[in-house]
Amino acid sequence: MVSTPKVSVVVPAYNVSAYLEAALSSVECQSFGEYEVLIVDDGSTDQTAAVALTFCRRDPRFQLLQKANGGLSSARNHGIRHARGKYIALLDGDDTYHPDKLAVHIAKLDRSPEVGVTYSASRAIRDDGQQTFMSLSGKPIVKNVLLALLCKNFIGHGSNAVFHRCLIDQVGGFDETLRSSEDIDFWLRIAATERWEFYREPHILCYYRVRPSGLSFNVAQMQRSQEQVIKSAYERSPQVVEPMLPTAYAYMYRYLARIALTSGDLAQAEDFIHQAWESDSSIFWRDSRSLLTLVSVRLSPLTKLILQQALGSTD
Fold it and tell me: Which are the contacts of 239, defined by CB distance < 8 A and separation ≥ 6?
């Protein structure tokens, strides 16, 4: 291990042996080298640990941590507890970085002490690693970070952010009681401090994998988690959050509609779209992605075909 890594890359990994080599290779190829990589094997039953060990044996910056299965938040927290870097970078075991990902973000954090979290635009990749046309710009829908996060996780996914290690001491780690939405809950707690800025790098520096074979969702569980996250945000900042609640719920229902559509439950998708419209119909003409979701639900057979072609699915 390097003596004083500037950034700790935490890689939660559960049964991702087919993808982990690509993820770790993308860190190995970084133009910024002052890092350590903490691979957290969260009770995998495949060859995840064996893949990780090949990197650990050839590069002392890579370290394998093994624990009983506890879920994504538990694995992230475990890795962060072992981290020695000033900054934390997150990378899920099936995603990849652009070669300049760490260099760009760490340069920004070093020169801008007011920035607590930095992230970038990102692009979806297929199960086989090929890039798709789908991308996330990371643009917040409003200037107020807390309100923007309440409506949409503009960071996008769990492999995108690089942040100050001290934020964990200030707001705590990832909530291990949440079965989903743990990312947005963490960012909302940081935003609620009103001490830190979130900075978006407009260039695509991260690639998140969408696996059609793994597109099975517990939508009811997702809804419960999202509702808990909104409730907690309201309890922390009631005066700020209350006027935004109808819009926040509209975005939540819109998100659930997209998930239901992706999993093939059209009736459920239509029900969620209706609830979104009832909560705040303005999101559909103020936000292009919301309008796209509405149209996609209405044209679901065509949407399904487009998604299958983009993601390489033959179902």
Answer: none
Residue 123 and residue 43 in contact, taking contact as beta carbons nearer than 8 Å = no
CA-nearest of 172, 190, 143, 10 to 84 is 10
Question: Residue 145 and residue 140: Cα distance in Å, rounded?
Answer: 7
Q: Where are the beta strands (DSSP E) in the chain?
A: 7-13, 35-42, 62-67, 87-90, 96-97, 115-125, 131-136, 162-164, 197-209
Residue 136 pairs with which residues in a beta bridge?
122
- What phi and psi, each to the nearest 5 degrees, are found at residue 115? -85, 125
How far apart are the C-alpha atoms of 283 and 264, rounded to whole Å?
24
Total residues belonging to the chain: 315
> What confidence tens digit (pLDDT) does each residue in 299-308 have?
765 555 555 5
pLDDT digits (tens, 9 = 90+) for 61-83: 999 999 999 999 999 999 999 99
When comparing pLDDT for 21 and 133, which is higher? 21
First to last CA, the chain: 45
Q: What residue type is 190 in one-letter code?
A: I
Instruction: Give pTM, 2 decimals.
Output: 0.90
As a whole number of angstroms, the distance between CA 268 and CA 37 comes to 41
The neighbour count for residue 144, using CB atoms within 10 Å, is 13
118: nearest Cα among 90, 83, 92, 144: 90
Q: How far apart are CA 154 and CA 17, in angstroms?
A: 29
The pLDDT of residue 215 is 46
